[in-house]
Amino acid sequence: MTLTHKTISHTYADGCSSVLQVYSSQGANTTIYLLPAMAVWARFYTDLAKSIAELGVNVVVCDWRAHGSFQFKVGRKADFGYHQMVEDVKEIIDVGDQLFAGTRRVLMGHSLGGQVSALLIGRLNNHFDGLVMLASGSIYHKGWSGLDWLGVRFITYAFPVIANLVGYFPGKYVAFAGKEARSVINDWGRCGRTGEFRLVGTDFDYDNGMKTATPPVLAITVEGDVFATPNSSKQLIQKFSSKDVEMVHLASKQENIDKSLDHFNWAKYPQTVLPHIEAWMIQRKLVVN
Question: d(Cα 225, Cα 94) in Å, to the nearest integer?
Fold first, then answer.
């Protein structure tokens, strides 16, 4: 199998640009679009993307608007929400379709990336052949219990207030994410309070769109991860009408890994998720044997 890596600069409809990390596997019949967590750059997933591509698929990794290579600076007068993120990924899918014409499309999202992936499936319905959620789920408070539930209730009210007062969300000052657009935090917080994706900047009914979609889903969560519990993953998956759902819960302690896995560092140990991803793809003929 021949595996190649290249970077592609893409200019979006509004004139902003970013660099896509593209891994090509010779003879692949599937292209995976790997969407990062909030405030996490594409380069964080280098080892994971290479390992997945070595299974025999193409992988495209992007940066979110205002992060990494994406030439957009958030400020009081520079804002966007989840809907714009969906629009950005739609353009990335178009780039992938040009590079890898005729291949099947699978969305793979870490944390926020899983939410945007779900929204994109709701927007384009059954345009995709699968969804892989990695330490991801809905921020809806019913996905938590006890003190964690109280924490989610608090931040989904407090963080949008901070973002609206400042004009953007100063994440580094509250030890959550980075400098984020206020509408991203408002969309995130509204979902946490209501469980609904009523997004800034659009009248499109994303929840209804997801209700009619039936993607095969693989959801992988990590023991002790307070940002993405198994119940929060279920909250997001239940928005679809999917019958084909597989859930995997990883132990935080893994053989030959000194550190306990958490919401982020699992991505530095691709061997923890690769067997599950490979088996899932083989069962659905997403990998050429």
Answer: 34
- Residue ranges of domains in the chain, CATH in brackets: 3-138+206-283 (3.40.50.1820)
Angle made by CA atoms 145, 150, 153, in degrees to the nearest 5: 110
SS (H, E, C) 261-287: CCCCHHHHCHHHCHHHHHHHHHHCCCC
Helix axes 182-194, 82-99, angle to 10 degrees: 100
pLDDT of residue 289: 65
Tokens encoding 156: 């989904």
Distances 245 to 36, 39, 52 between C-alpha atoms, Å: 22, 28, 20
Question: pLDDT, tens digit, for every residue of 139-165?
Answer: 999 999 999 999 999 999 999 999 999
pTM across the whole model: 0.98
Which residues does residue 220 pair with via DSSP β-bridges, in sequence order? 134, 248
Which tokens sit at 63? 């940066």
* Per-residue tokens: 141: 């408070």
